[in-house]
Input
Amino acid sequence: MTRTHCPYCSLQCGMTLVSTSSTTGAGSTTGAGSTTGVGSTTGAGSTTTRRAAGLEVQPWAEFPVNEGGLCRKGWTATELRGHRERLTTPMVRDRATGEIRAAGWDEALDLVAGRIKELRTASGPDSIAVFGGGGLTNEKAYQLGKLARVALGTSQIDYNGRWCMASAASAGNQAFGIDRGLPFPLADVEQADVVVLVGSNLAETMPPAARHFDRLRGRGGKLVVIDPRLTTTAQRADLFLQPVPGTDLALALGALHLVDAAGAVDEEYVATRTHGWDDVRRSVASWWPERVERVTGVATSELRALVDLLTSSRKVVILTARGAEQHSQGTATVLGWINVALALGLPGTPYAGYGCLTGQGNGQGGREHGQKADQLPGYRMIDDPAAREHVARVWGVAPETLPGRGRSAYELLESLGDGGGPRALLVFGSNIVVSAPNAHRITRRLESLDLLVVCDLVMSETAALADVVLPVTQWAEETGTLTNLEGRVVLRQKAAEPPKGVRSDLEVIAGLAERLVSTPSTGSGTDGPTFSTDPEEVFAELGRASAGGKADYSAISYDRIREEQGVFWGSPRMFTESFATPDGRARFVVAEHTGPAESTDEAFPVHLTTGRVLAQYQSGAQTRRIRSLPDDGPFVELHPMLADRIGVRDGEPVVVRTRRGELTAPAKVVTTIRPDTVFVPFHWVGANRLTNDALDPSSRMPEFKVCAASLGLATSSPSGSDYSTTDRAAGLTA
Amino acid sequence: MVGNGMAATRLVEELVARVSAGSTTQEWAITVLGDERRPPYNRILLSAVLEGTHRPESLTLRDEQWYADHGIDLRLGARVLEIEPRLRDVMLVDGTTVEYDALVLATGSIPTLPPIRGLVRMDGTLHEAVHAFRSLSDCQGLLAAIGGLDTASPRGSAYSTTEGRRAVVVGGGLLGLQVARALGVRGIATEVVEGADHLLHRQLGSAAGRVLARDLERLGVAVYTGARAVRLTDNALRLDTGVTLETDLVVLTAGGRPSTALARRAGLEVRRGIVVDDRLTSVSDPAVHAIGDCAEHDGRVTGFVPPAWEQASVLAGVLTDEPVKYDGSRVVARLRATDLDVAVLGDPEAEVRDGGEVVEMSNPVRGSHRRLVVRDGRIVAGALVGDLNRIGLITQHYDRQTLLGPTEPGELLMTERARETVRLPDEAEICNCAGVTAGAVRACASFADAREKTRATTGCGGCASTVRQLVAEQSRLTPEGVK
Output
């Protein structure tokens, strides 16, 4: 029996894995292709547990975040084990023929290291780039940043977390001097009187979190949901506001306008705990309700109802998620809502405040330990000399050898190959072809590289383009820590042996490092940098590297995590006395609404927004391969009025076009979406061929959540579309 | 810049933004001349201050420090006496002069005084019971007169001092109705006098105007249309219909006209407003520009903030040599008054005269009148009274000139209906988290049984009520019961 955490979202639900094999002795676990646990379960409870490949998921009722609850992704998480598409040997492509063949580990790693050395000699270290992921464990994220800075010597490293909560991170740093998703435990929302969710569909994206919001309502608290779609989350709201995509900031400005107009500003809090209110107050004077209504499409009566709730209690929590953040003005949008929270005196007071609902499994930890282009471990900035000094000492290198700031995620990918930037890319824990905006363009950039190396479990859409594919261990086959959306560091523990032939990401990193670092990597540390493959050792080193930084993990150990059901870095409840700014005060920052980068026009008259469905996670590389999870492919959600306008009926194929690409998928006609907006889930290839790559000036977040699109009837069936039958075959169940 | 209202403030902001963004390299020495003695404020919220929903302090747009911080010479209480275009300077009443390379006139409008005998005293001042409603000072004067000076009080609290007091609002336009409603909210017995045969006659047809009058009367405000005030005595206003309204207060909101006296004296071309071209430049003098209520572009003067702001934005571009043009604005007029719902898009009366197709739904029983004027599949104007359902969508379609399908305008006017509850088919998935169908739950004996067997309700818990209902439904079905 192993206590661990779900492989997917940032909630990191606790769960118990039980081996169903009758012979559970060490080393005896079967590998790929093992039989399911026939006849191995008891009678009565047999329908309540899901099992595959000898592991079954059972509740871990004591873990406070999910209290034993899981969504169907969690219940079925072990089904990916033993999947017939699982990669178990490195693959190498012959550039001349395009053929891909199995190779040994030494051959593959030698080849990668050899090509990297050639490129580095010819074009310098910045010709090599690394792309990480927000799903990687803290240990991997840390080690990846070290690989880039120490073994490759490149500044060109970033990760897909830029496409997650980066706008909230940027806003949090500006306003509070620190970036932690939630500055309080999630369960605190139960004790609030009002919770406002801006652009979160948590009932689908992190279902077990919804229990806390249901308890809030059970206590008589009110839930407000702001979303262009009446989602399953919005259906349980006491107040639902349905703005035009890309106008959440105008709504925040309008809310603050009315808060000030009503005299509901907490003047004492503002005077003693913040700076900058006067400028913000003036800036919202021109956002009266009727103007907000015209910009946002939210009726003045609804805005007033929101403000009545906001000003009804001191226990108000405002939470943003991707809906508010994935915009070219995402940082400003979050700042707009933080300003509302500060004016009401919420942050740092009990059962109140602002928070961001991080998305990816290690969205929080993944951004703290150095896989971001501008950061070193512990949330230190790479251009801070003291930070460089400290980290270089831990790494056993000279500070001046550390490269500087690199390109942000989208800019990095956009610069690859033909783009004039790096010629080689190493990818860990990311499926760029599906998840990058303006995916056509980025795919072309990937194809123009001299060398693309992808580490993955299966032949993902990105791995399929690679020169070298390295098969890595998966979730239950390895140990590591993740930091959930609350800043709670949790431990995922190994519960099964990996198939023969795969290695952990840490082993891949060490294998490359030993081939690339000139000093011996096996020494005592004084001889130069070392790259351990033992997660607990790496975590201890991460602790030393982060010591004294904003996200300081030095006091956390695996033992403590096991004993305490996770350990918060910093205080579980932050800002009670002061903020993490030099003078301890929070900052109001003026946020001006400029609107989406691309407006609707004659040719592209509807808004397109993208998002998630319950049964899939991110690019679907894992969840689309789990038989018990329905995979019906993408769809185009639209309102009956819009459906009538173009003459499409529910289920019929419809084409969505933008300036960047097109997608054909069945229409899903629903009354729950704004009639001027269509929605496409992004888990399948296609949605991100449509999305806009306009970036937020500070977080460098692309505008996934709104662009201008046109709609039309498809002339052929969806199978002839972008969403090819081969993409789909992999996930089909029946 | 002559004027310190909302248009001028927006222009200054736009110029400052361009300077700090580095998009202009020009060195600016900006002087703002405002005749009011206070920093600029959001004038359109004055009726909200009167009503008590806004504190006066929250109206300030920029304080004096902000101008100082950006090196702008803000002169308050500075009245301009004369513009001297040949010398390129303006002279203030205190005798000082300010030179300019570019002069922006943003002088707004001035209220017109209706021809009522007794309104103006022999010495030229207004009768003590009479109030204009143009500036924050006017607003505060009126508040003082009704004893509602304690403006920090939340709306809805009692204003005992207003008890038994009466007011007459002269003018049944947007401002008049807002003021009337605000006074009504303050507990003052209020009546509205409008010379035309219905309220908001510039925006609404007579049917909509009548519905509006009824809505207003339902809120306790009496309406007299087709009636002109002709004589003010000490405590009453006499109408030309023979009616005499006893009153303690008279508020004048009967329209305004562009403030053009300075421009006219300076020899600039003025018709209803100061005539400007697509670059918002006077057709008589390339160094002079006009924006906002005082400007006339393409034969039109506006009286609203959004067009003034669009003009300010364009003029900022013009002044920094951007190739921008002003080609008119789409106006959405919204009445700002509690429980009185009116929105007017564009100029519905004119669009109807010009052959626009009218899609209309009138429900006098409910007190609503909704009209869209459609041309070539696009909403070109509209008037919504008494029911603003879907307002946020209708204005989006209007602003973006969305090409609509033939049934859409009609659907937009229908009230949204709550989704009906239907019996869930067995194959309907009721628990997304665990992927459980209604049929699977119906097969369970109890809530706990369903939870145990299917895992429904154990994820997000959102299906709990549905599961309870399905289980209860099942247990009610006795063998002889309905199928």
Notes: Chain A has four domains: 2-80, 110-163+366-420+448-568, 167-357, 606-729. Chain A touches chain B through 63 residues (CB under 8 Å). The longest strand of chain A covers residues 662-669. Residues 167-357 of chain A form a domain with the Dimethylsulfoxide Reductase; domain 2 fold (CATH 3.40.228.10).
